Amino acid sequence: MTSQSLFLDKIKQSLCPPGNGVFTVNTAKERKEQLHQALYGQTDNIESIWSDSLNNLPDSSAAVILGIASDCGGGILRGANWGPLFVRSTLLNQHSGLNVFDMGDVRVIPHLLHDKYLNEPTIANCRKALYQDKDSDLAVSPLTITEDVLHDFYAEFPNKGIFGIGGDHSISYPLTKTYLQAKKKQGKRAAIIHFDAHTDLLIERLGIDLCFGSWCTHILDDLHEKNHLIQIGIRSSGKPKEHWESTFGVKQHWAHEIRENGVAPIIANILSQLKEQAIDELYVSFDIDAIDEAYASATGTPEPDGLTPVEAMDILKALAEQYPITGADMMEIAPFTDSSGRGASSSETTLKVGGEISAFLLNEMAKN
């Protein structure tokens, strides 16, 4: 078998049809069927139709969607595991005509995070559940499956990019790690543009080193320079900006700076840095809580005094005019979570904002 055939065989085992990453029997059945009807024109035999569709991946768009329906790496309000299903539906309903290929969802055992936290008997038991083979060599935890699949993805398709839909922000660890390592092999200098209310620069959280609050820390060595992690929208932190920049070497633009000075100086500063450091390509990791809670409250940690959707899009458009965006993700949309008291409108508003940003990023990725 060719390496491409081996890769396609791997993803047919490690992944599942779009929207099926949350394992349920009856819950949300209608929502999943609506997505499958929109994607495939039917609701029966979806596993087989999806599996056959993967054979079209080699000749598909440069923008490839991967859902990772896990919130095991979160820790405040849960529910971001439903993000991949709902964001896809929003894109299909409100942004039809996108030139993208949907590779499906990672198969998620909801109690697991990363294989390194598991003992061998547990891994064997999970392999039996996922793959009907306890002696399989495939990964079983969402972060590990994502990393394993994407290392091979970039080796086979160096000119394609992944748009990851989460899920909690721990998922960006394997998404960005594999991206950065692939770009280094290609001889390209890439920067991570990270929109978030929080720094995600903890060393660990309650003894766990890979989680929604620490993933950035563990990709710093994969960057050419640590300040190629550029964070935008920070405002919820127990320590000042100077601590994070001096301790970790990253570059930050806090939300209050944008409120006080507007987006133009921030854009100019970022573009100047990217030019000075000879950056070739960008990856955008977008935590929806970078957006002010008035526009995006259906998330685990909504925060006030954040970016407006217009400000976020102004920054993204300015960056995209100068640099190719070749990878991206949308994280922490939790459609059933409502901390605002606005009921269903909270989810609808959040998904509308997240869908607009996601559609823009996918369109930019498809150009490359």
Automatic annotation (TrEMBL):
This is Arginase family protein. Belongs to the arginase family. PROSITE patterns: ARGINASE_2. It holds the Pfam family Arginase. SUPFAM superfamilies: Arginase/deacetylase (SSF52768). Gene3D superfamilies: Ureohydrolase domain. Keywords: Hydrolase, Metal-binding. InterPro entries: Ureohydrolase, Ureohydrolase_dom_sf.
